[in-house]
């Protein structure tokens, strides 16, 4: 289908449609992930404690440029659920305040 199947490790005998919540990673992304994981495993303290913030600076600046903001306005989170919880818990609500939402969100 659209020639994309070859980019994934998914079992070719199944038709996989859930790339939202349990999506597979394209092969090039998976290879890059494995390289970073090996680097972390080789020197975990240096990687996380001394290098990680600097390594993430350029991608954060690139993303900031893409979305039209300053890099200091962005933070990486583990997933959308974590992100939405951070936002929800940062709103100071008072008795009588109302929160309007949609029913389009991910259930978590």
Oligomer status: single chain
Structural class: mainly alpha
Helical content band:
40-55%
Kindly report the average pLDDT value.
Answer: 88
Main sheet properties: none
The gross shape turns out to be extended
Report the sheet-strand fraction.
under 5%
Distance between the termini: 31 Å
Counted beta strands: 0
Helical segment count: 3
| Poorly predicted runs of 5 or more residues | none
Secondary-structure element string: HHH
Radius of gyration, taken over Cα atoms and rounded to an integer in Å: 19 Å
Structure description:
It is a single chain. This protein is mostly helical. It has a domain at 5-72. The chain contains three helices and no strands.
Descriptive tags:
108 residues, single chain, mainly alpha
Itemize the secondary structure elements and their pairings.
Elements lengths: L26 H16 L1 H24 L12 H10 L19
Helix pairs in contact: 1-2
Nutshell version of this structure?
With 108 residues, the protein is mainly α. Helix content is 46%, strand content 0%.
């Amino acid at each position: 289908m659209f020639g994309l199947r070859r980019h994934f490790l998914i079992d070719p005998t199944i038709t996989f449609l859930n790339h939202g919540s349990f999506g597979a990673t394209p092969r090039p992304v998976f290879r890059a992930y494995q390289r970073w994981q090996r680097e972390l495993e080789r020197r975990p303290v240096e990687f996380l404690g001394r290098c990680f913030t600097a390594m993430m600076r350029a991608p954060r600046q690139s993303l900031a440029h893409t979305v039209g903001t300053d890099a200091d306005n962005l933070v990486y989170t583990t997933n959308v659920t974590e992100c939405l919880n951070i936002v929800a818990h940062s709103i100071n609500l008072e008795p009588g305040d109302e929160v309007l939402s949609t029913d389009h969100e991910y259930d978590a």
